[in-house]
Specification:
The structure holds two protein chains of two kinds. By secondary structure, chain A is an alpha+beta fold. Chain A is built from five helices and twelve strands. Chain A has a single domain, classed as paralog of FGE (formylglycine-generating enzyme), CATH 3.90.1580.10. In chain A, the strands form four sheets. Chain A has a four-stranded antiparallel beta sheet. Chain A has a four-stranded mixed beta sheet with strand order 10-9-8-11. In chain A, strands 1-2 form a two-stranded antiparallel ribbon. In chain B, the strands form two sheets. Chain B has a four-stranded mixed beta sheet with strand order 1-2-3-4. Chain B has a two-stranded antiparallel ribbon with strand order 5-6. In chain B, helix 6 packs antiparallel against helix 12. Classes of the chains: A alpha+beta, B mainly alpha. The interface between A and B is medium-sized, with 21 and 19 residues.
């Protein structure tokens, strides 16, 4: 009994230490003059090169695969071509979202703004997430000192938005299609899952993760710009079924999920008006 | 010690009493020094009410109650001090007048029936009681400040009830409700004229304060501080409300012979509505031939016997003028961009001012035998009132059979307004937008998306992309898929047919939402409303 207590105490202290360290270090990673985007050469945006990847799950390789990850009756996975796009290394933070709210007076729930600055924003609706992306798009276009690479991409037709399912999944699993962002085996210390609450973005060192993206697994579910539809994935048919009630895909699982739900292929979906403490988002710059 | 005497003993002690001697003759009088504290009892009761959960739910409500109590207690303190110094003698004259308690009972029955279908009425019950306590205390203090007697009866009940049947302030502004009540009583006390040798109040107290506050709210553009429009639109949530009001109205008509006022106003309005429809091809009022709140008003607001003409002819003219007044004000308010809800309230004080003029105008008809035979002359008669009531009953039955009361109204149908708008009929596009906006506020995703598209394209409304996006976002959060896609990418706007959930709101015909209605019935109803795709669906079901 006492041993259990000591283990619990150790776990709590470790989490507290991570929290403390990451809170302090992560604040330094963001630039208050750049809408609290990451203080990196590309403002935290990471290029995901054009190319194909296997979308969906193969139960022979991934026994935890859900039925809705199957590509079609005849195929387990589909090969999807995704053009170059940029994705944010981190989930959108409370500081970033607060900047948007203060600038636009956008009406949000108080819960979305509660918490440390570098924690992922949560309790936001899908429309809140799209509104933020639209606002950031305007800010980036109006900026004078935008990184040339980002500026060129925006000028060539890119726009800040949410990731499509395909973009998100490719960014999470890479061209080869691993089960988790870091590989095919679940590993402790790579993601915030099976936990009691969110952590600051980038709390876990995940240099093994594809494209060095943080929290693609766990922490908070991330809204995408794809309506929930059966595979095969095709983002040109989004307006074909308008009779059903809206349901939008979210990806990545959250702190409260177990290992099976933080796989890169997992497809969650939620009502676009839902505000939940485990649903946030990250943005991309995409030409699609 | 309590003393009971007759009015004659009191009359010698007050000069003012002469003015009302004929009214209060033979009424029992209660006197005694301890009665001076009666207003305090009402104030204390009001203070105790402030601890109910309903009042405790809002800080402004609590402070409004406490401020009212404090004001009454200060006034009471002054009166006690004044009376101690001047040895005043204050009395109650007990006067239980049928026009008070019968009207109050009819009002109460309306609240009960309406409250069964609209929860805020039930929530408002405590606040109604509070206003009655406040009204008694205020009215007694006001009377005793100006004279020695107060006529104790059910007088404040119909004033409070009829005021609240048309308007009450939201919790955050509820102190204005007490002000409104106070203004009603001040108007009754101070705004008087000599009529037929008696000094009487000019205005119906509730109509006076409602009219005054309506004017202030409209001119200060603060109409959203009250529940007025919600009250007006939710009366019809109770099934067959027209018939219910009609029945309640018959009671008032029978006892107080106001049939000519209510019936003539109603008949004029139904006739004008029919005339407008035949000319313009669209209804004059949005969702009925005579809006339910107007129908209520012409039975229970404009019919105060003491502020309407004395003669049957005068009452007929009074009713006709009310009908015309409401009809005209509806358009005037709309032209000024003000809520049309106030049409029924603003014209009553003006009509109250005109009663002497009306009575004088009809005086030459004194010798017209034909009119007298029809009970439309200048001599009131109970028998004639019964004849007028019979005519009104026949008329109401006829218009009900024609579907002009509780049945479906052509203005309830969105496809009707869309078609009328396309054809360029008068006000049709504005009505379409108003309806879509109303249904959007009711949480219909379809309606929010439709109005968003109108703002996006600047169709029937000025183009406003930001507003369009806000509507798309709202519709999306109501799970209307087309709206989500429009919000995400407005370069391509999608419209879609209403879902079953939307129809449960769109087809409610000013009644309850159709949350329990089976889908096949719902689509059949939609087909009747002119939704063509629903007709096809009905066939396939």
């Amino acid at each position: 009994m006492r041993k259990v207590k000591i283990i619990r105490l150790q776990k709590t202290l470790t989490l507290f230490a991570i929290l403390l360290l990451t809170t302090q270090s992560a604040v330094a990673q963001f630039d208050a003059d750049k809408w609290w985007l990451a203080d990196e050469p590309l403002l935290g945006f990471v290029a995901i090169p054009a190319g194909s990847f296997p979308m969906g799950s193969n139960p022979l390789i991934d026994p935890m695969a859900f039925e809705n990850e199957r590509w079609s009756d005849s195929r387990r996975q589909g090969i999807v071509e995704v053009p170059l796009f940029y994705i944010s290394r981190y989930e959108t933070t409370i500081a970033q979202f607060k900047e948007f709210v203060e600038d636009t007076q956008h009406n949000v729930s108080d819960a979305s703004l509660e918490g440390a600055a570098n924690f992922p924003v949560a309790s936001v609706t899908w429309t809140d997430a799209v509104s933020y992306a639209r606002w950031l798009d305007g800010k980036l276009r109006g900026a004078n000192d935008l990184p040339i690479e980002i500026k060129r991409f925006l000028d060539e037709g890119g726009r800040v938005t949410l990731a499509s399912e395909a973009e998100w999944e490719k960014a999470a699993k890479g061209e080869q299609g691993s089960i988790y962002p870091w590989g095919n085996q679940v590993q402790q210390g790579m993601a915030n899952y099976a936990n009691d609450g969110v952590l600051a973005v980038g709390s876990f060192d995940c240099s093994e993760c594809k494209f060095d993206l943080a929290d693609m697994s766990g922490n908070v579910w991330e809204w995408t710009r794809s309506p929930y539809q059966d595979y095969p994935f095709d983002d040109t048919d989004d307006r074909e079924d308008l009779a059903s009630d809206a349901l939008w895909v979210m990806r990545g699982g959250s702190y409260s999920d177990e290992a099976n739900n933080i796989r890169a292929s997992v497809r969650g979906a939620a009502d676009p008006g839902a505000r939940r403490p485990f649903i946030g988002f990250r943005v991309v710059i995409s030409k699609q | 010690m309590q003393s009971v005497t007759k009015k004659r003993d009191v009359k010698s002690r007050t000069s003012k009493a002469r003015e009302t001697s004929s009214v209060i003759e033979n009424m029992p009088v209660i006197g005694g020094a301890h009665l001076l504290k009666v207003p305090t009892l009402f104030a204390i009761a009001l203070f105790l009410l402030s601890f109910t959960s309903r009042v405790q739910s809002n800080d402004t409500l609590i402070y409004s109650f406490w401020a009212s109590c404090l004001g009454l207690l200060v006034w009471q303190g002054w009166l006690l001090k004044h009376c101690a110094a001047h040895n005043c003698h204050k009395t109650f004259i007990i006067g239980l007048k049928p026009q008070h308690y019968i009207q109050a009972m009819v009002h109460l029955s309306v609240y009960t029936y309406w409250g069964m279908y609209w929860q805020p009425v039930q929530d408002h019950a405590v606040l109604l009681v509070a206003q009655i306590l406040f009204a008694y205390s205020f009215d007694i203090l006001l009377s005793w400040t100006r004279r020695e007697t107060y006529q104790l009866g059910f007088g404040p009940f119909p004033i409070i009830f009829s005021t609240n049947l048309f308007m009450w302030f939201m919790d955050d502004w509820f102190y204005l409700q007490f002000v409104m009540v106070a203004v009603g009583f001040l108007g009754k006390e101070f705004v008087r004229w000599n009529r037929d040798g008696r000094l009487v109040h000019i205005f119906n107290p509730s109509a006076f304060t409602l009219g005054l506050f309506s004017l202030v709210l409209i001119t200060t553009n603060t109409t959203d501080l009250t529940w007025g429009p919600q009250i007006a639109s939710t009366l019809s949530l109770a099934p067959n409300m027209y018939t219910y009001l009609f029945m309640g109205g018959l009671v008032v008509m029978y006892f107080f012979s106001i049939t000519l006022v209510a019936a003539s106003a109603a008949i004029v309005m139904f006739a004008l509505s029919a005339l407008y429809f035949s000319i313009a091809g669209v209804p004059y009022f949005l969702d009925s031939d005579v809006p339910i709140a107007v129908f209520l008003g012409l039975h229970l607001l404009v019919t105060d016997p003491s502020t309407s003409p004395r003669t049957p002819t005068g009452r007929l003219v009074f009713g006709i003028l009310y009908g015309i007044g409401v009809f005209v004000l509806y358009t005037v308010l709309d032209l000024f961009g003000s809520p049309t809800f106030y049409d029924k309230l603003l014209c009553v004080p003006l009509l109250n001012l005109s009663v002497q003029w009306i009575d004088r105008m009809v005086a030459p008809l004194r010798n017209n035998t034909l009119l007298e035979n029809w009970g439309l002359g200048v001599t009131p008669s109970k028998k004639a009132n019964l004849v007028h009531m019979s005519v009104w009953i026949c008329f109401f039955a006829m218009i009900s059979v024609l579907g002009k009361t509780d049945s479906r109204h052509v203005g309830d149908s969105l496809p009707f307004w869309a078609q009328a708008c396309e054809e360029g009929r008068a006000n049709a596009c504005e009505r379409l937008i108003l309806l879509e906006s109303t249904y959007c506020n009711d949480n219909s995703g379809w309606a929010c998306n439709a109005i968003g598209a109108e703002y996006f394209y600047g169709q029937n409304v000025p183009q406003d992309t930001e507003r369009a996006l806000a509507y798309f976002a709202r519709a999306c959060e109501l799970r209307f898929q087309a709206a989500c896609l429009n919000f995400l990418d407005p370069s391509q706007i999608s419209l879609a047919d209403p879902r079953a959930f939307d129809f449960r709101l769109l087809l409610r015909e000013a009644g309850q939402n159709l949350l329990e209605m089976p889908e096949d019935q719902l689509y059949r109803r939609a087909c009747e409303h002119g939704w063509q795709f629903a007709c096809d669906k009905t066939v396939s079901i």
